[in-house]
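Field notebook, page 393. I keep forgetting to write these up properly, so this time I am using the form the group agreed on. The chain and the ligand, zinc ion, are recorded exactly as supplied. Prediction of the bound pose follows.
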Amino acid sequence: MQSASRTFFVCVLFLITAVDCSRFGRCQVSQEMTPLLLTVHDAPVPFKGSDGLVHLVYEVWLANISSGEADIQDIDVIGDGAVVQRLDATAVSHRLQPAGLRESSAVLTRGTQSILFLNVILPNGTPIPKQLLHRVKAHYSAAPPGRQEIVESGGATTPDLQPVVRISAPLRGDRYVSADSCCDSTRHMRAAMPINGRVYVAQRYAVDWEQLDVDNRIYAGPREKLESYTIFGKPVYAVADGVVAVAVTGLPEQTPGKYPTNISIEEADGNAIIEDLGGHHFACYAHMQSSSIHLHRGDKVKAGQVIGLVGNSGNSVAPHLHFHVMSSELSLASNGLPYQIDAFKVTGATPGTEAFDEAEEKGTPLAVKAFSPPHVVEDSLPLDQLIISLTPW
Ligand SMILES: [Zn+2]
């Protein structure tokens, strides 16, 4: 390409991208240091939570390409030019985790990557943004004095408007707890796992369903006894018509109260069914009792069919049903997808994950806050630490 036409091409390109060019062919292109590289690998799929609001749950990767620390001061999530969420330094310090670690920090040490776990809640009536961008203000210890504060934008992504699958509940009855559900708990949502050459968050919307007895206890009797747990042995129901993609059986029940050691990733879900719901949606039902599963790969199942009984197999510390929806039949090498349960009744809430963990450890009653009257919720994803009656109630 000749020099003149190359100059023209470059100028046109920058005009299109709104970078300043002079009128007579010589570009005045600004260059700015962007020591943090921002990337979104999996665009958020907007969904309605049981709070009635639309949530955008996703991760932004931050790579610190500098020779010193990057101390994040604040981050704005910008939707179509307007700030839709602001995270101050404290909020960032709770939501930013160095890749591969579980402890969060607002500081990226030199040459490292961290993952920002976001839960952007749109105010009622706010349209879903067509584009999301992230403006990050940080202090860089390696930059020259007076130039250590840098603001940059990046991580552009477009929300994925694929249909959210509508399902029925995987359990039936009262006083279920939606433990470690979306969107601010630090377990499933932050289970960013390096599998098959990339990082997946397959369990982004997983729930560990537990059940309370009439005295609001998770178990009554010896902690290590499976039958002490209210939920143990409850039927698990197919959430929609589908086909069995994976059926794992033959794994023993674990003794409640302690996590098993040396579990392979193939055995982590315990006795489990992965059901192909169609439309690239797969439901994972994990930790069931081996002898309760009589399905095999390729079997058709109908919505509401009993597919197994709640157990404590695999990587599990107490009997519960782990349930999530994802993009493939691989329980970990998949993108976690939101779903909406057709109807359920929220009768209360626990004081939070810490209180739940304590009740699970000690067998003491949870200080449940009852909702009067209960809220009947339709076509929504149950959020974290709610007390829920699942149809028919
Ligand atoms: Zn789980």
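OBSERVATIONS:
- DSSP finds three helices and 26 strands in the chain.
- The pocket of zinc ion is lined by residues 188, 206, 208, 322 (CB under 6 Å).
FOLLOW-UP: compare against the apo run.
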